[in-house]
Structure formats: structure tokens, C-alpha cells
Amino acid sequence: MSKKTPKSSAPLTFDLPVSLISRIETCRRGHAFTTASQVVRLALDTFDFERCAPVRDPHKQISVRVTSAQRAALKRFSRQKDASVGELLRYALESLPLKSAKAAKSAK
């Protein structure tokens, strides 16, 4: 792959996790490239998009009732953690045990 910028290149802006940006930098140094664009072009040229099968967890919108204190806490933590309210709600739901401690004790 040529290290020069192709004549027909155009800027493309997208959001990436910081960990992936670090990987781009590591690859840039490892391949002796001078720009992140060269790393991205190499990745696009060599990746097999035909065999790619992205995994997506289907989403569905629901409506629930929460107390005003819970709503305020979600908004406060959303600002503090720089995360969406939905993301915080997903974390809370994923950490919830499937059975209550009381039900688990009675099952023994």
C-alpha cells in the first residue's frame, strides 16, 4: 500500500472508542505510517466485508414509571458519568440478580 494520500480521498468523520484510537496509533507505529488515515485505508482494503456478520442485540422501546427522585438521580449520574440515561438503566438492569435473595433462600 502506498504511503501517499490517494488523489481522490475525502474526509470521513466518525466516533470511535478511545481504545480503538489507541489501537490505530499502535498500528500506525507498527506499520511505519505517518497518519491514522493510512491505517484506516489499510484496514478498509484488507477487511473481508463480505464475510462480516455484525452482531446486534435488537432494541425495543418501553415505558416505565420511576419516582421523581430516581429520575433526578439518573439525570445527575448521566451528567457525572457522561453517559446516557438509557445506558445507565441498562447497566442497572444487567446487574440485577434474576431472583431475589429471599426467593433464593427459600429455594434451598
Can you put this structure into words, describing what you see?
The structure is a single chain. By secondary structure, the protein is mostly helical. Among the domains are: 15-52, no CATH class; 63-97, no CATH class. Helix content is 52%, strand content 0%. The chain contains five helices and no strands. The chain has helices spanning 18-30, 36-46, 68-81, 85-95, 101-107. Helix 1 packs across helix 2 (36-46). The protein starts with 17 loop residues before the first helix and ends with a helix. The mean pLDDT is 89.
How many beta strands in the DSSP annotation?
Answer: 0
Number of helical stretches of at least 4 residues? 5
Secondary structure class reads mainly alpha
Helical coverage, percent range: 40-55%
Mean pLDDT: 89
- Rg over C-alpha atoms, rounded to the nearest angstrom: 23 Å
